[in-house]
Design a protein that fits this description.
GO terms for molecular function: chorismate mutase activity; prephenate dehydratase activity. Its EC number is 4.2.1.51, 5.4.99.5. It catalyses: prephenate + H(+) = 3-phenylpyruvate + CO2 + H2O; chorismate = prephenate. This protein has 368 residues and is of the alpha/beta class. It has four domains: 29-93, no CATH class; 97-175, Periplasmic binding protein-like II (D-Maltodextrin-Binding Protein, domain 2, 3-Layer(aba) Sandwich); 180-255, D-Maltodextrin-Binding Protein, domain 2 (3-Layer(aba) Sandwich); 282-364, 2-Layer Sandwich (Alpha-Beta Plaits), CATH 3.30.70.260. Helix content is 42%, strand content 25%. It is built from twelve helices and 15 strands. It has helices at residues 7-41, 51-66, 75-93, 107-116, 128-137, 156-164, 198-203, 205-211, 223-233, 243-248, 297-308, 341-353, and strands spanning 97-101, 121-125, 142-149, 153-154, 168-176, 180-183, 193-196, 216-219, 237-241, 252-255, 265-272, 282-289, 312-319, 328-335, 356-364. Strands 1, 2, 3, 4, 5 and 11 form a six-stranded mixed beta sheet that branches. Strand 13 (312-319) and strand 14 form a beta hairpin. Helix 1 packs across helix 3 (75-93). The chain is globular.
């Protein structure tokens, strides 16, 4: 297509491209409906969300964007556009309900939208353990929970639930976090109380110490709840929350990006009953405990990973609750899928040496 020389030519070309795009998207949607019928004939009556397949589609879209015909849009933008198209098509096959930590406007809801798109039913819960319970009982098809923040560290309630749940980790989401100071008033002067989640207070501590050193800080269950309280209590009260929470509660932005570290990122996990297949770039998560009173017990558990050349991407410890003596769970993420022969052999070796051992899931690495 020739480069337009006039505004009229540019608009005409855009209209023609829009028509082509609409036709192609409609064709994709019809094929998605056909896929649902094909799976029904095959006896597959479950949901049609396939984490490994979706990750592969998004990766290919980003690879095309980087190729010789790549355009001016960033990889993340291309992936977000493809995600929404996939989300709409998937809703025609099998509408999904996804539980998240509510109320509306939380970062967990933003993680749901980033991973699943907007064509799912997002189901807010009051606590992280309710997300697990909703998926376990079938009230939701999937759940999204926070697991760690680059500043605030691990989310202990998620770790505790992972040890005991029968659910599997089906995916992960890396979400850049930008906090806003929100209030019904329009100026920073006179703020006497700030609501937020404990993790957000940890991520904004230096900013608050410098600019609101005398304001009371009250921890609430979520940033969405913080915004709701700030809206209800009015002037003199603020919340640290997302832009989305501010819009939903009609709050003013007193200060933007108040996080201490501009690279602040939270990692979320997608929970479900299915075990995703290999996508070609996967993470496996496990939890285990070492035998007590055995020198080198942890080394013995980690050595097989090194000998097999498996890359450990995360190693965290958490004390076992209600333990008479001090025991620790060790949470490990490493590159590879549980169906790979090398990974399978390592897991069996570690399982035989651990006091407690559980595979939490093998799932596609976050695409963006």
């Amino acid at each position: 297509m020739a480069v337009p020389q006039t505004l009229a030519e540019a608009r005409s070309q855009i209209d023609a491209i829009d028509e082509q795009l609409q036709t192609l998207i409609s064709q994709r949607a019809r094929i998605a409906q056909a896929v649902a019928l094909i799976k029904q004939k095959m006896g597959d009556t479950g949901d049609h969300y396939r984490p490994s397949r979706e990750a592969q589609v998004l990766r290919r879209a980003m690879e095309r964007n980087q190729g010789p015909d790549g355009g001016p849009l960033a990889d993340e933008t291309i992936a977000r556009l493809m995600r929404e198209i996939m989300s709409v098509c998937l809703s025609l096959e099998s509408p999904l309900t996804v539980a998240y930590l509510g109320p509306e406007g939380t970062y967990t809801q933003a993680a749901v939208q980033k991973h699943f798109g907007d064509s799912v039913t997002a189901r807010p819960t009051r606590a992280i353990d309710e997300i697990f319970r909703d998926v376990e009982t079938g009230a939701a098809d999937y759940g999204v929970v926070p697991i760690a923040n680059s500043i605030g560290g691990l989310v202990s309630s998620t770790l505790d639930e992972l040890v005991h749940t029968k659910l599997h980790i089906c995916g992960e989401v890396a979400l850049p976090i930008h906090h806003q100071l929100l209030s019904t008033q329009s100026a920073l002067d006179g703020i006497r109380k700030v609501y937020s989640h404990a993790q957000s207070f940890a991520q904004c501590r230096k900013w608050l110490d410098a600019r609101l050193p005398n304001a009371e800080r009250e921890v609430v269950a979520s940033n969405g709840e913080a915004a709701r309280r700030a809206a209800a209590e009015g002037d003199g009260v603020a919340a640290i929350a997302s832009l989305q929470a501010g819009k939903f509660n009609a709050l003013n932005i007193l200060a933007s990006n108040v996080e201490d570290d501009p690279s602040n990122t939270t990692r979320f996990l997608v929970l479900g009953k299915q075990e995703p297949g290999a996508s070609g770039d996967d993470i496996t998560s496990i939890v285990m405990t070492a035998h007590r009173n055995q020198p080198g017990a942890l080394f013995k558990l980690l050595q097989p990973f090194a000998e097999a050349g498996l890359d450990l991407t995360r190693l965290e410890s958490r004390q076992v609750r209600d333990s008479v003596v001090t025991d620790y769970y060790f949470f490990i993420d490493f590159a590879g899928h549980a169906t790979d022969e090398k990974v399978r052999n390592v897991l069996e070796t570690v399982r035989s040496s651990a006091a407690f051992f559980k595979v939490l899931g093998s799932y596609p690495r976050a695409v963006m």
